[in-house]
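Weekly puzzle thread! Below is a chain. First person to post its structure in token form gets bragging rights.
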Amino acid sequence: MHLDLQKYADTTFILRISSIGTPAGSNFYILSKSGLLTNLYYYGNLTKGITMPKEIKGRLQYLSILKDTAKTAINAYFMPLYINSKDGALFWSEIVKIKPWQIDDVDGGKCEKMNKIYDGVAVTFFTITKNEIKSILFFNPKSLEESCKGNKNRMDILAIETLFKNYFHFP
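Winning reply:
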């Protein structure tokens, strides 16, 4: 998927949220731009945001588990989402203001409270350009920022996560 996006888009940002210990696996929220065209894509759990009988949901989540063992690619789990051109341009400009290509996943120091956080989510942010695919990983950035305030990289990734949540409408 990453190589396809690198080939066919000028720049792509992907926010991957992985719940540690959750069988449903990772969700990828994708913002991609090629020329003046801005696109949103979602790749992930089939049961996202749908209320259904638990037996059916369990079967679909099982399919998602199987999917997670395979290579992430542009396939049936890769879904384009609608965004009008005005909102697409606004989303893009808000992300670019944060300068995501400058974010580093280096924590920038330790604090005593950090050792007390044992589970949560892993947030991976990918920046894909024609020349490079860069990924940065943060383990439980929200909880760490609450415990150890002030890390610019962590605050930037949280700001990006908030923007993605607003445009993709996930909790």
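Puzzle host: Confirmed. Bonus trivia for everyone else. The chain has a mean pLDDT of 81.
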